[in-house]
Structure prediction request, 288 residues.
Amino acid sequence: MDKKPPWLKKKIGLDNKNISAIKNLIDSSCLHTVCQSAKCPNIFECFSKRTATFMLMGDRCTRNCGFCGVKSGRPLPLDRDEPKKIASAIKEMDLLYAVITSVTRDDLDDGGASHFAETVKAIKKLNPDTRVECLVPDFGGNKKNLETLLLEELDVLNHNIETVESNYSKARSSADYERSLKLLKRAKEIRPDIYTKSGFMLGLGESKEQILKLLEDLKKNKVDIITIGQYLSPSEDNIAISKYYTPEEFKEIEKTARKFGFRAVAAGPFVRSSYGAELVLDKALENK
Prediction:
């Protein structure tokens, strides 16, 4: 693809003091964020607003998805103090909404579900008024692992479908489209009171018909909230971008998605699964 179009060049006022403060807090606590590891385009905006998406269980993933900027390889040992460190960081940042995600840890018997659960428990203990969203891997499709996490007081269970089914062989070769859909449906069956959420990218070679099919599948599997953003290749080693969707095209896709009856839809070039997550949930609550 040619160079990025003008609508993908962010021009926003940034609070450099906040950016430095958040970065120092993360570094001094030996924590990881998906903002840094996945090379998110919104990183400086979010740090400027004193928000971040914490990433559990190290910065090395046991999978190697074609679209992702997170490092893959031999994972790091679990830091058993990590849940408390994240809870303390959230308190220091004075967050009323926290998003917790992780690398995929296929090397762990429960895929890291118990570590997620311990983190939610620690956050709620120290920050009882903070709402918590967990953006989880597929836990190997194991229902018991999902149940372990859902025993805790999280508010949103998020699992990204990422792309249309036909792209899985090149974009998510170690994942399974139906397994991801089943996780989302199971979450709603286990905890009907929580909101389920999923996100996907455009620009990986999908057709309009495939997008509609994906939206239909998400709706059938009880998803409440969806996010749709532009794929931006993190490096030359990742999948190339097939198309830059215009803001107008995103508006049309968002309008189409709303017709399926989701409680909230966020779509746009810079939309990411955890970007503005609190505002998206508030929209869903309005449509309850």
